[in-house]
Design a protein that fits this description.
Elements (H helix, E strand, L loop, with lengths): L7 E6 L3 H7 L6 E5 L9 H11 L8 E4 L8 H11 L3 E4 L5 H6 L6 E5 L2 H5 L1 H5 L4 E6 L1 H8 L11 H13 L3 E4 L8 H14 L3 E4 L5 H8 L3 H19 L5 E3 L2 E3 L1 H17 L5
Parallel strand pairs: 1-2, 1-8, 2-3, 3-4, 4-5, 5-6, 6-7, 7-8
Antiparallel strand pairs: 9-10
Helix pairs in contact: 9-10, 11-12
Length: 277
């Protein structure tokens, strides 16, 4: 069993060549080269050229491109460049309609950004579209559209966050949590990562290199958790070998869903553990 982890997904502005080069040296599970919000209109063309060049490099993990949205002057040029250059996936901002996504007929996985109230309400339909790999929450635009007030625990957004997780998981797609804006607040970032994992997100989008390793830790599997998963599986296998219909681990009943969860944890641990020196 192999599980591709998406613990940390790093946004890198397309108009920052040095930042793009540095991103290759980081341990982010995936990188999004951004042509949209992070790039001013007068720099769009130069950024597209930078991204095209970067797509020819060898990257340690999946390389995605966030293209400019539908109806913008840059949408066709962005998509054509990325598709011809061999991108691993496209990130489409402000997705609100499943039919529009379906009509794109892309040949690569699409990551749909849910950033508006309508996007949240239609998230189940969007997640159901073939070719959609996952949903990415964009809370900056969502909070503005909802007219919420800032809250350290994201209380006004909890319903929307859970709705996106529910929609993605219902259709076997991956939900990725939104960025944390204050790169000077590592404690706040850690709390939000823990909240995101508790809500069911597979990983977190990040905007600074210093956020990569904390996200990896928060959404990863520790050695202790891997040992616990092995022990649970061993109890399950022993019960089956002895012909028992019931298995227990640490006094709790073990069911098939616990076995599947343990196997998934071990697969992520295998994929992400450091290479032996």
């Amino acid at each position: 069993m192999s599980v591709k982890p998406w613990r940390s997904v790093l946004y890198v502005p397309g108009d920052k060549p040095r930042a793009i080069e540095k991103a290759r040296t980081l341990r982010a599970d995936a990188v999004i080269l951004d042509l949209e919000d992070a790039v001013a209109p007068e720099h769009k063309d130069a950024a597209r050229g930078n991204v095209k060049e970067a797509l020819a490099w060898r990257w340690p993990g999946p390389l995605l491109v966030r293209v400019n949205g539908l109806g913008t002057p840059w949408e066709y040029a962005d998509r054509e460049m990325a598709l011809l250059a061999g991108v691993d996936g496209l990130v489409l901002p402000k997705v609100e309609d499943a039919g529009t996504v379906r009509d794109l007929h892309l040949r690569v996985p699409l990551w749909a950004m849910i950033e508006t109230p309508l996007g949240v309400l239609r998230a189940p339909e969007i997640a159901a579209v073939p070719g959609v790999a996952g949903l990415i929450v964009g809370t900056n635009d969502l909070a503005r559209a909802l007219r919420t007030r800032p809250h350290p625990g994201r209380l006004p957004l909890l319903h929307a966050l859970s709705a996106v997780v529910l929609a993605a998981r219902a259709h076997g797609k991956l939900p990725l949590d939104a960025v944390f804006n204050d790169v000077r607040d590592p404690e706040g970032f850690a709390r939000e990562c823990e909240q995101g994992r508790t809500l069911g997100f597979a990983g977190k989008t990040v905007i600074h290199p210093d956020q990569v390793e904390p996200a990896n830790a928060a959404f990863g599997v520790t050695d202790v958790e891997a040992d616990e998963a092995r022990a649970l599986l061993a109890a399950w296998e022993q019960a089956r070998a002895e012909g028992r219909s019931v298995a227990t681990y640490l006094g709790a009943l073990v069911e098939q869903m616990h076995v599947e969860e343990a196997r998934e944890r071990l697969a992520i641990w295998e994929e992400t553990r450091p290479e032996p020196r």
